[in-house]
Amino acid sequence: MDVFEEYLAKIDNPVHRAELEEVLAWVLEQFPDLAPRIAWNQPMFTHHGTYIIGFSVAKPHMAVAPEKAGMDHFADKLKLAGLDHTKLLIRMKWSNPVNYGLLREIIEYNIADKADCTTFWRA
Q1: How far apart are CA 11 and CA 118, in angstroms?
Q2: Which of the listed CATH numbers 3.40.50.1860, 3.40.50.11810, 3.90.1150.200, 3.90.1150.10 matches domain 2-113?
Q3: pLDDT value at position 39?
Q4: Pick from 24, 58, 29, 69: which is nearest to 44 by CA?
């Protein structure tokens, strides 16, 4: 988690900081093959040099960004879960529990879907 320490220290709200830290630690624990890094001033995870998922914070929510292909693939599940989202990110309200089951599915999908990807972003 050292790679995220400086980013986390800049989050003013201690509850939001703790929750994001918990999510990042969960990703590291559940997906030990993913490489943690900071890029574009946000915590993210890569696999064999390709982007898998990124996180950022805003006052009302934590944003989860699985790329557009991931968003498109999970659009129906996001609606069923009642998660607010755009074409590129999911807004997980701080007042709601993190949907770890859906987060796991999204990460697993991106790892499998990008298994042969040789670029950082999808084409």
Answers
A1: 33
A2: 3.90.1150.200
A3: 95
A4: 24
**CA neighbours closer than 13 Å in the CB half-sphere of residue 25:** 9
Average pLDDT, the chain: 95
Q: Is the pLDDT of residue 46 over 80?
A: yes
**Alpha helices, DSSP H only, in the chain?**
5-9, 14-30, 67-73, 75-80, 100-113
CA distance 43 to 30: 16
pTM reported for the whole predicted model: 0.95
Please check the confidence at residue 35 and state whether its pLDDT lies above 90.
yes
